[in-house]
Amino acid sequence: MDDAIHLTYPISPDDFTRAGEASSDVKRKLKQMGVNPEAIRKVAIAMYEGEINMVIHAKGGEIRVDITPEKIIMVLDDVGPGIPNVELAMQAGYSTAPDEVRSLGFGAGMGLPNMKKYTDSMDIETTIGVGTKITMVVNI
Amino acid sequence: MTVNDVKEILNARVLAGEDQMDQEVRSACGSDMMSDVLAFSKDHSVLLTGLCNPQVIRTAEMLDIVCLVFVRGKVPDDSVIEMARDRGLVVLATGHRMFSSCGMLYAAGLGGGAI
Fold it and tell me: Does B33 sit within 8 Å of A102, measured CB to CB?
């Protein structure tokens, strides 16, 4: 029996004002389901950072969220430029974001480190010129 | 301290959440970079910022922040304040600068949380 809940969100590129709507919706749903607050907080922060990244760096894409009784799996699939050096991108403070993104309050080089910090596992598959797929898991 | 204490200390105006001024706050974070806020903010906290876009409200929402304070006399546009109202956030605005605002709250006993 498949008792998981599957959610899918298309993420539009360059729509900074709406960035975060998907994360907001997931947070609301988890709250309604009575998931423990610490897990909700971790999912909300990690997914929000990822969603912002998809708007800033990639050309949008899709986020799929699976909620099971044991864990929450988030798959962020973009059609962006790919990450040339994942190790460097994982360093706190390293950023390739342009100044206009920094003026919006992001691009501090904390996105990927935050996503790792708030999840129980994170896997990055990236191909230059094709896109990036990030899978994050938060145990409940 | 309570949100109302924060308002009094910073001589701030209330832009949203007038009915929630007696909520307790336990720590604060001051930054214009939302990723830094997402990295370090704690529960029941106050966020002081000079950034006025909708992502401030979303960041506060993700972190269950209780009270937002716009510093340096900044006031976001009505759509941003409306977003805050929808999410039950208290929004304050003060003319004090970031450094002074943080210092005043710290001196009154509000900490930043452990590193």
Answer: yes
Q: Which of B34, B61, B64 sits opposite A105 (nearest CB)?
A: B34
d(CA A114, CA A107): 12
More confident site: B112 or A65: A65
pLDDT band at A15 (very low <50, low <70, confident <90, very high): confident
The helix (H) or strand (E) run that includes residue A111 is helix A111-117
Mutate to test the interface with A, among B29, B31, B33, B35 (most CBs of A within 10 A): B35
Cα–Cα dist B35/A109, whole Å? 8
Q: Looking at domain B3-107, which of 3.50.50.60, 3.40.1390.20, 3.40.50.300, 3.40.50.2300 is its CATH number?
A: 3.40.1390.20
Q: What is the ipTM of this complex?
A: 0.86
Can you tell me the mean pLDDT for A8-21?
A: 89
